[in-house]
Write a structure and sequence with these properties.
Order of helices and strands: HHHHHH
Shape: elongated
Oligomer: single chain
Largest sheet: none
Strand content: under 5%
Helix content: 55-70%
Number of helices: 6
Length: 139
């Protein structure tokens, strides 16, 4: 064995054996027990709710969706509410202006991607698209 090979073997042995160690568990440290989480039940969305009100509430929920994903602050509940609102708003937009659905649906799809794949950037982009779609639709 050459001196270079022996040196490499010795170095590998040092790193491998150096990684072994004793783990100590400090039993004096306690983890606080948290109480049950509370859930907020929102009223059902009325089928005749005004479209501007629906879009404003969707906008509000999507504005904070990226933060909810990062903080793990029940983004699935926010997404469920967005879906409830969107199902009513979608019917109204489809009845009035079916050609204007695409940007709204694209924003909702990005919200789903953000929550389901834990990608706050998708939710943030969805919010930006939604804001632009609302501005263009109400102009």
């Amino acid at each position: 064995m050459t001196s270079r090979g022996a040196g490499a073997l010795a170095l590998a042995a040092v790193f491998t054996l150096g990684a072994c160690g004793t783990t100590y568990v400090d039993s004096s440290v306690t983890v606080p027990i948290t109480g049950p989480t509370t859930t907020t039940t929102l009223p059902p969305v009325a089928a005749d709710a005004p479209l501007p009100v629906l879009l404003a509430e969707i906008d509000d929920h999507m504005r904070h969706l990226d933060t909810a994903i990062v903080d793990d602050d029940r983004p699935d509940q926010a997404l469920a509410r967005i879906d409830e609102l969107w199902s009513v708003a979608e019917d109204q937009i489809r009845a009035l202006d079916p050609d204007d659905l695409y940007p709204f649906q694209q924003a909702i799809d990005l919200a789903h991607s953000g929550v389901e794949r834990q990608r706050p950037a998708d939710a943030s982009k969805g919010y930006k698209l939604l804001s632009a779609a609302i501005a263009a639709y109400t102009a």
